[in-house]
Amino acid sequence: MLTTPYAGANRIRFYGTLSARARTFGAGTPVECSNRIPWALPTARLRWRPTARLAGYKLTGELGVALPRHPTAPQDTNAHVERSTKPPAPAAATAVTRHLAEFLASATYTDVPTAAREEATRATLDWLGSALAGAVEPPARIAQRIAHSLGVSDEATMFAAGRSSAGAAALANGVASHILELDDVHKGSTLHAAAPVIPAALAVAEREHASGEDFLLAVVLGYEAALRVGEAVNPSHYRHWHPTGTAATFGAAAAAASLMKLTPAQTLHALGTAGTQAAGLWEFNADGAMSKHLHPGKAALNGILAADLAREGFTGASRILEGERGFFRATSTSHDPSRITDRLGEQWKITENCYKLHACCGHTHSAIDVALDVRARRNWSGTDALDAIRGVEIQTYGPGYEIVKDPNPGTPYRAKFSIAYCVAASLLEGRVGLEQFTPDRFDGEGVAAGPTASLLERTRVSVHDDLTARYPNEWPTRLIVTTRDGVEERGASGFPRGNPENPVSTQVLEEKFLGLVTPRFGNAVAERALHAVRAIEGVTDVCSLFADLEVSDVVRR
Questions:
Q1: What is the helix (H) or strand (E) element at residue 479, kind and residue range?
Q2: Which of 94, 151, 368, 506 is the most exposed place for a label (fewest CB within 10 A)?
């Protein structure tokens, strides 16, 4: 039986192994195929064009198939069959979980190229700023109190709250990481990897007294697992599920397993146990609830739990990703298992990381960048834009719009998920930082009376199919600002600033870090934390890295 888990634009890609009974198939010989593609399709009859001796061969390739009429269905294509010489090919459909586990368990720091190592350090720097600044926010304080209630322990650092067990620290630090909406994001998976992966890696690294190199390797591998799983189920998964809580659980488990030196078999069990805990629903967005912050914290905790259980002999599903009732089928209407194995060990996902420079949902960032360009082009200062603008039209992509469509947010949290508000703030104030989301700007029903509320009345947001078609490879937007004298200022962007296609320097990330940490912990703590990250690769025991910060004693609000 051959399975077709992925439907390409023009062909169905298949993977599989023919039984020993399979002999020579001549042209036109019918073969049954079990289909796993993004829309309902009964078992199809496939016809090989070439004559090929296939007995016992592991196959990968493309084939022609007559399909029922469907708006997204590929048409008949020219087929070919080839003998695979690459081990990952069959694994892409039948054993991707095992293949991933074996890779994670065998990878060493020397396997990781310099660019990926450097990106792991940059990702840690960027994460630490968000985690420290978020640690003094109300949702984080709640999580810290609960973490302490789970028991007394000195295993790991809990930012702004002392020490606790590794799992509890990962929970609290993961929650803190995702509060300010300034943590990193990955386009293809629509996933914030740092917030769940790095808290898990740091907590276990401290507990296990791991070296800086081991910690950075764990971060790289955690990103690898989280982002590849996220890509495999995106974009249909994103309709109901928050990948930072779901797919990232695999990443947290991968990071923990690496630091604990689990065997391939143990790592497989850890992934199985991680997957059965993976959760996180988008319904929180309807209320602006704190659940979004919980998702990475719980993913970090669950990942550590999965690895700890595996080390003690606790078993997990061996096909948690690709199984008939596994993660792929349970959480997406379409999935591409090849995303797990494609160029695994060659293309390191952490090098695709995107850094956020605006304190709001990433789906607003392309539009913000364009709005800032328009403001600069027009030399507007202060609220000049309010008098000059007659109307604003924001064109965006469908999946992003569903998250950021609030036209008149009534709370700071809701404003972070309002593309209209973020663009208005950009045009009027020239930045979208934390100060654009203070409580005094909102009255519970909408934006408080003033310049921003006035500009929102002239702002329209619309979804365009051509932009949606470019997602998730791009997060595109078009902006049209019409002035009162009839001039149209136009701009477009597919990649926000901070994306690999539109990169920022480490210096910019360090400035962002200091801007977040210094006001909350003082300059001395901020500088010590920055120095610690710069030195992380060379330390022999990560447990000593942040112990000197004593952040719980110096918090100032």
A1: strand 477-483
A2: 151
